[in-house]
Specification:
A six-stranded parallel sheet has the order 3-2-4-5-1-6, with helices on both faces. The chain has helices at 23-36, 53-58, 82-100, 112-117, 123-132, 148-153, and strands spanning 13-17, 41-46, 65-70, 106-110, 138-142, 156-159. Helix 3 runs parallel beside helix 5 (123-132). It has one domain: Rossmann fold. It is built from six helices and six strands. With 179 residues, the protein is α/β, with parallel strands linked by helices. Strand 2 (41-46), helix 2 and strand 3 (65-70) form a beta-alpha-beta unit.
Length: 179
């Protein structure tokens, strides 16, 4: 398959949100499915700067999947730094370019909802990005605390709900499963 508009005519906006595990995992599964169909994928990871096991796997699909990170090695827990703001803005510009370039059929903006929660980007920034999406591009937005306006503008919204998690019993993140 190719990236031509003849392969499919209509993309959707998908939102994966909620406090449960699986938002990034679902988006990566979609990226893998798209690559398997020969579609080019752009993944922009906001608020993430650590290399994880998925990056090693995705390198095997470097001809179809492009990954960029716009975060630090640490989690934002207090006031964001000037660097946090700069990384988020750079990510937004790269996302806009990927979305409108014609080079990608799937664009995934991992943890973009956290950028609006922390005020790194405005909800208006994200809504403007959605408005710029060409009809044939699938756009996936992940992260906790998705804004209601963004969810209303989406075609599909999935909320991950945590009912039970091994972290509650002290199990730390495991390489290849959570990181």
């Amino acid at each position: 398959m190719s990236n031509s508009a003849a392969d499919w005519t209509e993309g959707c906006v998908q939102v994966y949100t909620g406090d449960g595990k699986g938002k990034t995992t679902a988006a990566l599964g979609l990226a893998l499915r798209a690559a398997g169909a020969g579609l080019k994928v752009f993944i922009g990871q906001f608020c993430k700067g650590r290399r994880a096991s998925e990056h090693i796997a995705l390198e095997r699909f470097a001809d179809l999947i492009t990954v960029h990170q716009y975060g630090d090695l640490r989690f934002i827990t207090g006031e964001p730094t000037d660097e946090d703001f700069a990384r988020a803005r750079a990510g937004l510009e790269d996302a806009r370019q990927a979305l409108t370039s014609g080079g990608y059929r799937v664009v995934i903006l991992d943890e973009i909802h956290l950028t609006t929660h922390f005020g790194l980007l405005s909800v208006r920034d994200v809504l403007e990005l959605l408005a710029q999406r060409p009809r044939h591009v699938e756009l996936v937005l992940t992260g906790r605390r998705a804004d209601p306006e963004v969810m209303a503008a989406a075609d599909l919204v999935t909320e991950m709900l945590e009912l039970k998690h091994p972290y509650q019993e002290g199990l730390q993140a495991r390489r290849g499963i959570e990181e």
